[in-house]
Amino acid sequence: MSASETARPRGPVARGGVRPGERALAPDLARGVMLLLIVLSNTGFYLWAAHHGPSGWHPIDGNALDRAVQFVMITTLDLRVYPLFAFLFGYGMMQLFLRQTAAGTPERTAVALLRRRGLGLIALGFVHAALLMAGDIIGSYGLMSLLLGWLFLRRRDRTLLVWCAVAAAVTVLATAPGVEAVLTGQLADLGTSGTELTTIVYASGEENPLVAAGTRLTTSAYVTVAGGLLSFSGMAVMLLGFWSARRRILEEPDRHLPLLRWTAVIGLAVGWSGGLLAALATSAGGTSPPRPSPRRGRCA
Asked: Where are the transmembrane segments (predicted)?
């Protein structure tokens, strides 16, 4: 970006939102499905009477059907939908930027519009935490959009791909303990932590609504900052979404069928393989004595 572009004053936004004839069904439908799957994945936090394992996420009691459903959810659902949602989030950011600049909106104004939306997501995330759930991704995605929008929205394609690869490499290195656990036969210890149960920091068992809201807000602040600044996997796929939106891959899928097919096959294989390890670890850890989540009363 040149000095003249930097000094150029911001102009007005040249157009409004997406018009009916401009909508692409595939990304809109994918976003909705991913949100539904995220909701299903989070149901474990609201199982009031359940005994939770070391992670505090999934219960370790229940009958054979409960355990079978849990195994399938961990393998195919838990944390498996976030990459696609982050990709679609980045894709949508670049779509908005390109749509505005194509209509004559100055680049700085388009970036400022995205920045306001990111700040709005952070605020909405805290409201969501106060009322419902502390660990949602709304705030962290808002913070990540501020960071990546500022650093990368107007960068060259090569820059996007290089930093996408860097973030992906950091993510792979972060999974090294899990790989080591598999190779050394310590799969049952995978995910075990000395920290508080997730059900505690999410206030899932707290009866006092004000105390619960305070706990959720504290946890949400941590999740927002840590997720927004340290989620390198999310950054990698969001940058990939930037790059893909410039090529209209989802709006023109017929022109990119080989890429989409290979992405689906490889993505599902990698994602479900990692999920299978987590499911096996949870099953192995489920043989330990139940550890009830602390509660001061019973659910009515």
From this structure: 29-49, 81-98, 110-131, 137-153, 160-179, 221-243, 264-284
Query: How far is Cα 120 from Cα 139, in angstroms, rounded to an integer?
Result: 9
Give the long-range contacts of residues 186-193, CB within 8 A, separation 24 or more. 187/277, 187/280, 187/281, 187/284, 188/281, 188/284, 188/285, 189/281, 190/277, 190/278, 190/281, 191/54, 191/55, 191/278, 191/281, 191/282, 191/285, 192/54, 192/55, 192/285, 193/54, 193/55
**Does pLDDT of 155 surpass 50?**
yes
User: Tens digits of per-residue pLDDT, 89-127?
Assistant: 999 999 999 999 988 889 999 999 999 999 999 999 999
Q: What is the mean pLDDT of residues 209-223?
A: 89
Tokens 């999974």 correspond to 175
> Which of 246, 256, 249 is closest to 95 using CA atoms?
246
Say how far apart CA 300 and CA 294 lie, in whole Å: 16
Predicted local distance difference test score (pLDDT) of residue 113? 93
pLDDT, residue 69, reads 86
**What DSSP designation does 10 have?**
P
Asked if residue 22 has pLDDT above 80, the reply is: no
Q: What is the distance between the alpha carbons of residues 237 and 243, in angstroms, rounded to a whole number?
A: 10
CA distances from 258 to 91, 215, 264 (A): 19, 47, 10
Long-range contacts of 38-45, Cβ-Cβ distance < 8 Å, separation of 24 or more: 38/81, 38/82, 38/85, 38/137, 40/73, 40/77, 41/73, 41/77, 41/78, 41/79, 41/81, 42/133, 42/135, 42/136, 44/70, 45/133, 45/135, 45/198, 45/199, 45/202, 45/204
Quote the CA–CA distance of 271 and 274 in Å, as a whole number: 5
